Amino acid sequence: MNTSSASCDLKPGLVCEEEYVVTEEYSAKHIGSGTVMVLSTPSMILLIERTALNCVQKYLPVNHTTVGTMVSVKHLNPAPVGGVVRVVVKLIGVEGRRLLFEVWVYYKGRVVGEGQHERYIVEVERFLERVRRIQSE
Ligand SMILES: CC(C)(COP(=O)(O)OP(=O)(O)OC[C@H]1O[C@@H](n2cnc3c(N)ncnc32)[C@H](O)[C@@H]1OP(=O)(O)O)[C@@H](O)C(=O)NCCC(=O)NCCS
Fold it and tell me: What CATH number is given for 10-136 in this structure?
């Protein structure tokens, strides 16, 4: 299967969710994006990206993956270190290699974050070839 048809098994409506413990490494204090021991905004984005990546990987042909190209989320409520957050991603758009997700993060049923996330399907070796080209410019 070539990359242009790589998304053919992916359909809007696919929903995936994962739970994560908010460990100290995810805190704003540890990351340096803030001073308090709560889930940092960069860490929340990491958990959203990881959930979306895992959600679609099994639908892709071998030697393909997805890379994050856009994140637009609001961080609406804090989640404490030691707490468990639930990340839900819903695939709402598939246009060729472009995948668009609606995303939500919850702590105890309260919305911690919400927004949209875009990923692109790439053929790993071609992507790395471009990285090498950029590096050698
Ligand atoms: C994802 C991305 C490739 C999409 O770009 P695009 O506008 O669709 O790409 P184009 O079709 O214009 O092609 C540009 C280059 O992307 C690469 N590319 C295109 N299609 C590709 C594919 N199917 N697989 C791998 N790389 C591909 C090629 O290197 C291409 O250059 P080339 O044609 O000279 O080889 C680009 O936005 C990007 O690299 N973003 C950075 C993503 C990132 O690093 N995220 C963090 C890691 S998760």
Answer: 3.10.129.10
